[in-house]
Amino acid sequence: MLNGLFVTGTDTGVGKTLVSAALLHRFRHVPELRYWKPVQTGIEQDDDTAEVLRLSGLPADRALHEGVRLPRPLSPHLSASLAGTSISVASLMDVASQQSSSSHWIVEGAGGVLVPLNDHELMIDAMTVFGLPVVVAARSTLGTINHTLLTLEALRARALAIAGVVLVGPPNIDNRLAIETHGRVTVIGELAHLDPLTPASLQEAAMRIASTGDLDWVFAR
User: Helix 48-56 vs helix 16-26: angle between axes, to the nearest 10 degrees?
Assistant: First the structure.
């Protein structure tokens, strides 16, 4: 079984990859910290693993490159179908089971928690089997309250531990307070627009995520 954190999002393109890279900076001191994206669609346009390695400054061997890699930037189930293949939670677990038990992981999901992997399994089914505490990447802007609360509700319905929320975008104290109050969750960090977005600028921003030790328990296991 993997140890570490699972990064999900309230939507596609919300900032999961940025948050994953930031967490790799924040917990760089953790022994054998590695990154994995089990399912990647649109690989010909966006290689999230390569982007995370660039932004985190980690060497290529600190990422697991195995998994589902599909050409079209669509929902995993549709992208797989059009590629003449299929995705299963069991196949993802086969890859996970071959990894060293001494490693710690930042695992990034594809899309949101209820994105279909196939005709009968959703991303949250894989998350439930992995059993990792979840960090939710959410937009800071209008609409985020509803999307974030729905995501938290889905996670709690599966009894998944919620490590916290990271808001991506311009700081919005009202949205932050609403999410914390109504979602009964901690916003463990905020990532504003970084210009330029470089490993150095992201590292500086990442040090403010969970700065009070909120996530130390995850990597102490």
Answer: 40
Rounded distance between C-alpha atoms, residue 149 and residue 145, angstroms: 6
* Reported pTM: 0.96
Give the CATH number of the domain where residue 182 resides: 3.40.50.300
Query: Do the bridges between strand 63-64 and strand 162-168 make them parallel or antiparallel, or are there none, so unpaired?
Result: unpaired
DSSP helix/strand/coil, 160: coil
C-alpha distances (whole Å) from 220 to each of 92, 93, 133, 206 are: 25, 23, 13, 20
Going residue by residue through the chain, which has 221 residues, state the pLDDT in tens, using 9 for 90 and above. Answer: 789 999 999 999 999 999 999 999 999 999 999 999 999 999 988 899 999 999 999 999 999 999 999 999 999 999 999 999 999 999 999 999 999 989 999 999 999 999 999 999 999 999 999 999 999 999 999 999 999 999 999 999 999 999 999 999 999 999 999 999 999 999 999 999 899 999 999 999 999 998 766 677 787 76
Place of tokens 């999961």: 16
Catalytic residue among 37, 77, 147, 176: 37
Annotated catalytic residue 37: yes
Domain that holds residue 21: 4-219
Burial of 187 (0-12, 13-18, 19+ CB in 10 A): buried
C-alpha Rg value of the chain to the nearest Å: 16
Are 17 and 106 contacting, i.e. CB atoms less than 8 angstroms apart?
Answer: no
Q: Name the domain count of the chain.
A: 1
